Amino acid sequence: MLWLFYPITASAVDERFQKKNHILVVVNQFPLSAIFRRNATGHIQSIEGVSLHILDWIAQRYKYDYSLVAGNTTTVEDLGSKPGHITNMLRLKADVMIAVMTHSPGRLANMEYVHPWLYSTGAFLIPMPEGWQNNMDAIIKPFQPLVWIGLVIAAISVTVTLLGYNYLAKKKNNLIDNREKSGAQQIIVTTQDLIMYIIGTLLNQGGYISCKITKIRLLVGTWCLLTLVLVNVYNGILISFVTTIRPTPPIVSSRTDVGYNPNIYLVVNRGLAGDVLFSSADKGLYKEYGNKLRAYSKSRCNSTAICVEMVKLLPHQHVYFNTLHSLLEVIRQDYQQTKQCKFTFVEGAASHPGCWGVAKRSPHLENFNRGTLRLHEIGLIFLWESWFAADTRPCWSRNQNIQRDKNEKKPLVRLSLDNLIGAFALLIVGGIISLFVFIMENFYFQWKKIR
What we know:
- The protein has helices spanning about 50-60, 85-90, 105-110, 145-175, 180-185, 190-200, 215-240, 255-260, 275-280, 285-295, 305-310, 325-340, 365-380, 380-390, 420-450; strands spanning about 5, 20-25, 35-40, 45-50, 65-70, 95-100, 110-115, 120-125, 130, 245, 265-270, 300, 320-325, 345-360.
- The protein is an alpha/beta fold.
- The strands form three sheets. Strands 1, 2, 5, 6, 7, 8, 11, 12, 13 and 14 form a ten-stranded mixed sheet that branches.
- Strand 3 (about 35-40) and strand 4 (about 45-50) form a beta hairpin.
- The longest helix has about 30 residues, at about 145-175.
- The protein is elongated and about 120 Å long.
């Protein structure tokens, strides 16, 4: 038999519920566990979720008859004048409380824990890094920093060597007599020509050196071969960078960033698992989380919706901690409303148990423990979890890291002006530098003319 009462009142408990095989169950809403389906007026039409399947299986196995009372609170402990899950359970003298609770010494004073039915990883909800095509740094990205450093050293070395050979040629030219001097002058190369030749080959513009000295020609040929390879490699890799949509870095990339980055604010649901774990920690990373909660007045939210809105605030500085199942439900609901993937998450804590509660010294505790263990053993809980797990596609999928089929063609990317912003930025910078040099040359020429 199924009876549904809403909202909770002490008068909801009837004498007919005092039968030996009849249990009163308080159901608290939580993603995956118990989902309330309401009509337009807010009236609960049905309750579904993994916990309801577990309850029904245990009731059939141990010959229970049960009634459901829908909880209307969002926290385990009392929140000001508003009662929490445990207070409602005690007021109604309920036998079982369906919830997703972690162990806490304070809660053990008022109830017993059933063997955990859910093990959920803790995670941090963060804003989705935005993709951008304006690759301002695409001009330098094709080569690693060490390659650029090596290229600069090579260019300087070749230039110095050529200038050295050219200096020796000039010195030798000064020692020969006037009759041979006219022929020796053909081997002299001006310093300006050498430098412009090095720069021109690097920019794939080519150049010309009239010198016929074997040493210089061999060195120049080696330099041309080097620049030929580098320029073609650079052009090939550059195409990949200008056509790639790259995400901006996330505000945090690990749970350590959350604890030790002073610019990040941590928010949690008041009185739920994250608040209890972090506030009671006395060492390690959890203590740092607790310090953040105590240092920030808005760190404890009265509802999940408030925490989610804080994560959306600009500039992005808030991260929201909850179980992974809860965050996946947040991602799903937000995508359904906005049709955009605005959130992702960073897994940040080990798996924590989620438990139900029963009254102190309850004769039903043993049956519920045995039933829960049996369901784990035969794999039914895992099956039911797959039924009610939040579908977060296309924002996130457990199989998103699986490689594409070899026969699947990658979508073509059309080049646009946004892809070439980096090249135009470099052109503008070069134009400004050239204009500055031109102006300085004119000033110097005028100053020298006046003198």
